[in-house]
Amino acid sequence: MSILLGRDVIPESIGRTDSVLGEACEWFDMAPRTVDVDHSQCLTPDKIPLEIGIGGAWAPREEFVADEIQRRDLNPEEILPPADVLTRSNWDIPG
Length: 95
Fold this sequence. Notes:
Blueprint: E1 12-20, E2 23-29, E3 37-43, E4 49-56, E5 59-65, H1 76-79
Antiparallel strand pairs: 1-2, 2-3, 3-4, 4-5
């Protein structure tokens, strides 16, 4: 489920901490000052969501909890798109 609230929405700390899989996390309201939306996430200090709760006035609250977490260093090549993705001709753009 995805809730698009715009770029101007800044998550606010709820002031509660938790632990999931031995990792500390802090609860944030991901949709502050939004009517009928309850979207909270427990985020690690490096912003990995370990628990997510989504609901509202018209739908029951759903809870999602991580069952595994792994961290590792990434090489830029692992996350960059292939070089030819930016080639104009591949997108039928003249020039």
